[in-house]
Amino acid sequence: MPIRAAEAYAWHARDGALQRLAPPGLQILWQRGPFETRQLALRPGRWQPTWEIQHSTAAPGLQFVDQLVRGPLPRWRHQHDFVATGEHTCQLVDRIEWELPLPPLGRWLARWWLERLLEGMFVDRHRTTRDDLLQHARWSHVPRKTVVLAGASGLVGTALAAYLSTAGHRVRRLVRRPVQCDGEVQWDPQRGAVDLEALRDADAVVNLAGESVAGGRWTAARQAAIVQSRLATTGTLAKALAALGDRPRALINASASGYYGDAGEGECFETSPAGKGFLADVCRQWEAATAPAEAAGVRVVRLRIGVVLSERGGMLAQLLPVFRAGLGGPVGTGRQYLPWIALQDLLGIAEAALCDERWRGPVHAVAPQAVRQGEFAAALGRTLRRPAVLPVPALAVRLAFGQMGQEVLLAGARLSAGKLQELEFIHQYPELDGALAAMVGSR
User: Fold this and answer.
1) What is the pTM of this model?
2) 22, 214, 218, 317: which is deepest, by most CB within 10 A?
3) Distance between CA atoms of 1 and 308, rounded to whole angstroms?
């Protein structure tokens, strides 16, 4: 790991580390106590038995152990060792001992299966740890910040809350239900209500809230919900920031690559005009809703986010079963551009926007490698070692999804990543093949 052993240990001990390391589908039911003696309950899947774990044998900066107290195995002991290998490097060593409650033949077969499963899981865990540490290291000289986060329950928001917490930042989640724990703040954006005191001593606000645009056909009611969910949340936060005297210095607000509509072959820059269509209109209104905060002197960053790639949700997670079955292929002509970004890089972009005051105005949150939809399908097929040649005709998309299919699946735009390069942002996953291999190649 590219960091001192004590700092690697500290990363694991911070809130959010367990969420960052958990495999897809793992539920964290509860946690109690300080890290060195923490008790927690985990469920690997909805119908799986619960694992109750106890931390022990902790030597801060060097080692800790988590051990099964109650669960499906007679024995499970996971020892984490942090071994210094240089002045600013260390080795993270995971040692696992387990017993299986099976007769000899069944135990042999299950051990083979479990070892393969663990190998893939730890490849992912170590990659995530390394990537987070590399990205956090760039901002280690910046004082830790208090961040108010809207949209914390979505794919990106859940990951961002955990990611910022492992960097030592303090995250307050805005929630619409009653508050259940420290770090939550109730708000009601439909009524324009938010706790101003919760914002007053914060350093920045990150707003990722908004109804999914790809959840089905765009009925009139659904279109209204898509627009209102973005304008209500952004407007409430921007007006609240403008009303405060002692206010957060930055508002990082989500937008989308849909700002440009169907842009064809031309390259889109942050200075390019908005396109036509429902999505472009939504993005234009969405970004305009930040105006009160900007007029009050808040540094506003509008992240025009491409398709976020993650095996945990979103487009990639929905495509994986189809492509694994060998039934994947290009949508429509496959010539339309697909602006994309690995979730890990989007987290790094958000952290950079928080910590670097050069970031302001619209910024394309996309990978530097522009790909077409057909190229994406071929790359995913290669990664999974499956054919990806079955096309989805444009007519079928229009019949099944109507306007949503036309604007989300059949349209495209080629977004430049030049501004990210000017801001010296370093992508961990600049190329599609490498990003897909990291996300699904070990499974």
Assistant:
1) 0.95
2) 218
3) 26
Of the ranges 175-179, 233-237, 335-339, 413-417, which one carries the lowest mean pLDDT score?
A: 175-179
Mean pLDDT of 231-259: 96
In this prediction, residue 47 carries a pLDDT of 85
- 443 pLDDT more than 70: no
pLDDT of 181 higher than 90: no
CA distance 146 to 151: 16
Residue 127, both tokens: 């990659």
Contact 208, 156 (CB under 8 A): yes
**Residue 85 tokens, joined:** 């290998």
Distance CA(15)–CA(31), nearest Å, equals 11
Domains in the chain with CATH codes: 5-137 (3.30.530.20), 146-440 (3.40.50.720)
- Average of pLDDT values for 73-98? 94
Most confident range, picked from 33-47, 208-222, 417-431: 417-431
- pLDDT for res 127: 94
> Taking 60 as the threshold, does the pLDDT of residue 442 lie above it?
no
